[in-house]
Amino acid sequence: MNARYSKSKALFARASEVIPGGIYGHSSPVMTVPGEFPYFASKAKGCRYWDVDGHEYIDLMCGYGPIYLGYQNEEVNEAASKVQRDGDCFNHPTEYSVQLAEKLTELVDIADWAVFGKNGSDMTSWAVRVAREQTGRKRIAMASHAYHGIAPWCVPGFGGVIAEDRSTFDKFYWNDPDSLDELMASSGEKLAAIIITPFHHPAFGDSVLPTPEFVAAINRIRNEYGILLIIDDVRCGFRLSLGGSHRVFGYEPDLICFSKAIANGYSLSACVGRSSLKVAASKTFLTGSFWNSASSLAAALKTIEIAERDNVVEALEERGNRLIEGMLELGQKRELPLQSSGPAAIPYIRVADDHSFHKQQALCAAAAEKGLFLHPHHNWFLSAAHTEPEIDEALQRFDLALSAVQREQVCAL
Ligand code: PMP
Fold first, then answer.
1. Cβ distance 200 to 343 under 8 Å?
2. Which distant-in-sequence residues (6+ apart) come within 8 Å of 313 by Cβ?
3. Relative orientation angle of helices 294-309 and 95-107, to the nearest 10 degrees
4. SS3 content of the chain, % helix, strand, coil (to 5)
5. Helix crossing, 312-333 with 294-309: angle to 10°?
6. CA dist., res. 411 & res. 362, Å (int)
7. What pLDDT, on the 0 to 100 scale, is given for residue 2?
8. Of 173, 266, 319, 372, which sits most exposed with the smallest number of CB within 10 A?
9. What is the atom index within ligand 1 of the atom nearest the CA of 121?
């Protein structure tokens, strides 16, 4: 273990005594490079955070997506804490639920109603149930290697999962209309819904935007077979368009799930849908002890207000392009060719032709040492707090990381 992370390591040892795995899920050290990355955070502001060892990072993961305007955005925090002073968890919902539902139905073209939960998984699983309720059909189609959350039907791996949990789910391949047509030939009449992310972002893989042919095939199948289209916009939502990422690519969804960016780090998810599904939605039981929390809803209202006021979507694209161009150029200069995939606001840059990801891991570990937090195997996220000077500072740190990797390569010869 790198001595730089000694407090992270000590805390992880303590955590491992009392928490299964020490740190679980996407934050687990095994998801990055154990020993070469920080494990625990202590504080954050803007586009930066500090680990428990006191190191500061420009963060290109944004809490894996939720940090959209920047950490500790004062306007959002003030809106949330003002509401909290009057109480957060009641017997009833508050007016904020209604206000946010009104706002989402105004923003998202297909949305005639909205419901709220806490995590993306709450909404993707509920949307699947709404589709079954509406169509009276059992089966659901999803893309191979897509991530939709931790419910048994979609969770990666098999821990605690039984075959029956997945027996009504069919897979097709991303950007492969033939695999969709094959599936339609066998199961078209039995499918309640197709659930897809706006673009494909598998872990340990490049992001893949949908081809126009794929989008057309999805829309055609939806119309031909009466299959509902669920867009899982949990990861991309609000970064590509405030009106839903389907608008960027041309999908015609029936239900859309949001979370992550919606409330700038406050826990909230939402599902919106067409009026034709309102009755089915009202029959599909949905609840959670904390789901009416007023502060998260107020945080979302403020987040969206700021996003509209400050043209955040455009800013993210501009700065994402600056980051991508800068990194690719530096890679050329340091003779470590890099490749970029995915939209500028949710980019993923990695060492080209590095099938084992070893060079990529070394590069991201070196970046962490230089104060730039990048993920080796998962797409990255930009926030509005990544201003031009901060992108440029990130590029300087990235160059230091590239130069360290270059030196190591020379030494290894
Ligand atoms: N869908 C997608 C596309 C996601 O990226 C995620 C979270 N990474 C989820 C669903 C699940 O969201 P959550 O972790 O909030 O349950």
1. no
2. 238, 239, 240, 241, 242, 307, 345
3. 30
4. 45, 15, 40
5. 70
6. 14
7. 85
8. 173
9. 16
Cβ density class 348-359: b for 16+ within 10 Å, e for less: bbbbeebeebeb
Which burial class, exposed, middle or buried, applies to 396 when counting CB atoms under 10 A from its CB (0-12, 13-18, 19+)?
Answer: middle
Query: Exposure of 77 by Cβ count < 10 A (0-12 exposed, 13-18 middle, 19+ buried)?
Result: middle
- Alpha carbons 256 and 272: distance in angstroms, whole number: 5
SS3 403: helix
Q: How far is CA 65 from the centre of its chain?
A: 5
Residues 6+ apart with CB under 8 A from 125: 149, 151, 153, 154
Q: How high is the pLDDT of residue 1?
A: 65
Take atom 13 of ligand 1 and give the residue whose Cα is closest: 120
User: Is the pTM here over 0.70, yes or no?
Assistant: yes
Residue 409 pLDDT: 77
Atom of ligand 1 nearest to the CA of 118: 15
- Both tokens assigned to 352: 């080209």
Residue type, 384: A
313-324 burial code (b ≥16 CB/10 A, e <16)? bebbbbbbbbbb
Give me the pLDDT at residue 254, please.
98
Residue 383 near residue 62 (C-beta atoms within 8 A): yes
CA dist 145 → 172, 202, 399, 402 (Å): 10, 6, 33, 31
Distance CA 413, CA 312 (A): 46
Half-sphere exposure of 61 (CA within 13 A, CB side): 19
Token reading at 76? 């959002």
Ligand 1 atom showing the smallest separation from residue 122 Cα: 16
| pLDDT at residue 413, as a whole number | 59
Which residue ranges in the chain fall short of pLDDT 50? Answer: none
Residue from 323, 268, 272, 310 nearest 291 by CA:
268
Quote the strand ranges of 160-224, DSSP E: 169-172, 191-196
In this structure, how many other beta carbons lie within 10 angstroms of the beta carbon of residue 155? Answer: 17
Rounded Cα gap, residues 321 and 328, in angstroms: 11
Residue nearest to atom 10 of ligand 1 (CA): 148
Q: What is the DSSP letter of 200?
A: B
d(CA 106, CA 312): 18
SS3 113: strand
